[in-house]
């Protein structure tokens, strides 16, 4: 299997500039074309362990190119199109890598309807997956990154893919998106991890990405069963609190966090019902990452 | 048949329940509702066929304490109104 790290930087750049880099992420193949050095930097740094699909087929076609004309020189920009459709405004050139990540999420959440897609992080330990749905600012990605840095397998930091037939989670392990204050927190918490150069003044503030572990990437064909749904909330100084949620209410809250619940109809209803049937759900408040991880490690190690 | 209630024609309801709470999927609207056990029991009864308020009261009277029987018609009427508000059931004498 050819991986990105088997290519030189020059070879990756040539594919991006030419026929496209056919990057495999979870169950998807993405054909990426770009002339942005910022995007090249990000791919070399974050995607070395990922497979390159050489079949010539791609689920998504993403083009990120530098703007032309005066925008090449004055406040240079990068623009995105997907199969010729340009749904978003151009962004500053040095936001190319976060833009790629957002566009990959946009492609999946907008069209991968063979899954029920939840806006949630998901990690796994001992064969038991923990889904972390939460709105921005809840500390979801920070908690996910911290768990991933302490032995939990990253399945996704943003999009939880639930199989409509088997109710299992299909991994989509990609770099973890960290924003604002969570960047220095995670750099201190996981000093050996790899981070991209922070992109400042994006629509989400300052954004940096944390590389997924090679183990998470290597096991991206290994689906997992949900054992817990945990709605995290970071609150400075708060004591650790794990409060059970009645299953029917957990169902409704997870459905509210789904991108395509309505679209998947009765199959989505049954899939989510199957997940809730097999798991426990909680509201979780934390302020200390070590305490949170110790609690979850204990849950993952407990007899089933 | 004035005063009768029924499930909307063509509507197929799928339900899953835990303890005394249920989630219910309506194939016509695509909506999912969080319902209590009493509302779900009413719906299950109406899935078998249209029923009047009086018939529903008679059906469920055996499930409650006799001291509460006087309140049952009002309670069921209120639940029926709520279910109608969610477009899960309809009154046969309702204007088109």
How would you summarize this macromolecular structure in one to three sentences?
The complex is a heterodimer of chains A (304) and B (96). Chain A is α+β, with helices and mostly antiparallel strands and 304 residues long.
Write structural notes for this entry.
The complex is a heterodimer of chains A (304) and B (96). By secondary structure, chain A is an alpha+beta fold. Chain A has 2 domains: 4-111, no CATH class; 115-301, no CATH class. Chain A contains 9 helices and 16 strands. Chain A has helices spanning 9-17, 37-46, 96-111, 140-148, 182-189, 214-218, 247-256, 261-277, 289-301; strands at 21-25, 28-34, 60-66, 77-82, 91-92, 115-125, 128-133, 153-156, 159-163, 169-170, 176-179, 199-202, 205-210, 225-234, 241-244, 280-286. In chain A, strands 6, 7, 8, 9, 10, 14, 15 and 16 form an 8-stranded mixed beta sheet that branches. In chain A, a hairpin with a 2-residue loop joins β1 and β2. In chain A, α7 (247-256) packs antiparallel against α8 (261-277). The longest helix of chain A is centred in the last third of the chain and has 17 residues, at 261-277. Chain B is an alpha+beta fold. Chain B has a single domain (4-91), classed as Outer Surface Protein A, domain 3. Chain B contains 3 helices and 6 strands. In chain B, the strands form 2 sheets. In chain B, strands 5-1-6 form a 3-stranded antiparallel beta sheet. In chain B, α1 (37-47) packs across α3 (72-85) and α2 packs across α3 (72-85). The mean pLDDT of chain B is 91. At the A-B interface, α7 and α8 of A face β2 and β3 of B.
């Amino acid at each position: 299997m050819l991986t990105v790290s088997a290519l030189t930087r020059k070879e990756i750049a040539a594919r991006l500039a030419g026929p496209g880099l056919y990057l495999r992420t979870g169950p998807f193949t993405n054909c990426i074309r770009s002339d942005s050095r910022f995007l090249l930097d990000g791919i070399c740094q974050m995607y070395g362990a990922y497979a390159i699909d050489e079949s010539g087929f791609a689920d998504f076609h993403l083009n990120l190119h530098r703007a032309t004309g005066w925008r090449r020189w004055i406040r240079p920009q990068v623009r995105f199109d997907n199969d010729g459709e340009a749904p978003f405004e151009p962004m500053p050139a040095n936001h190319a890598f976060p833009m790629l990540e957002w566009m990959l999420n946009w492609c999946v959440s907008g069209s991968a309807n063979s899954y029920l897609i939840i806006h949630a992080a998901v990690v796994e330990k001992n064969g038991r997956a923990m889904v972390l749905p939460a709105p921005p600012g809840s500390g979801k990605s920070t908690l996910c990154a911290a768990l991933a840095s302490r032995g939990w397998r990253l399945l996704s930091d943003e999009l939880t893919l639930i199989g409509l037939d088997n109710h299992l989670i299909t991994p989509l392990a990609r770099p973890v998106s960290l924003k604002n204050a969570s960047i220095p927190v995670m750099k201190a918490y996981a000093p050996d991890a790899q981070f991209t150069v922070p992109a400042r003044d994006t629509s989400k503030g300052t954004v940096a990405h944390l590389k997924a572990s090679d183990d998470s990437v290597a096991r991206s064909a290994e689906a997992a069963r949900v054992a817990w749904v945990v709605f995290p909330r970071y609150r400075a100084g708060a004591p650790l609190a794990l409060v059970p949620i009645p299953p029917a209410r957990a169902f409704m809250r997870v459905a509210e966090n789904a991108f395509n619940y309505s679209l998947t109809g009765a199959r989505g209803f049954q899939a989510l019902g199957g997940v809730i049937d097999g798991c426990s759900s909680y509201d979780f408040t934390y302020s200390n990452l070590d305490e949170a991880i110790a609690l979850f490690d204990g849950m993952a190690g407990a007899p089933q | 048949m004035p005063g009768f209630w029924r499930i909307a024609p063509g509507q197929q309801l799928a339900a899953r329940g835990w303890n005394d709470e249920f989630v219910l999927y309506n194939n016509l609207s695509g909506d999912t509702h969080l319902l209590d056990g009493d509302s779900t029991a009413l719906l299950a009864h109406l899935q078998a066929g249209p029923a009047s308020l009086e018939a529903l009261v008679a059906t469920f009277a055996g499930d409650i304490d006799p001291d509460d029987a006087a309140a049952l018609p009002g309670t069921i009427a209120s639940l029926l109104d709520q279910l109608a508000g969610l477009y899960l059931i309809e009154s046969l004498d309702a204007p088109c």
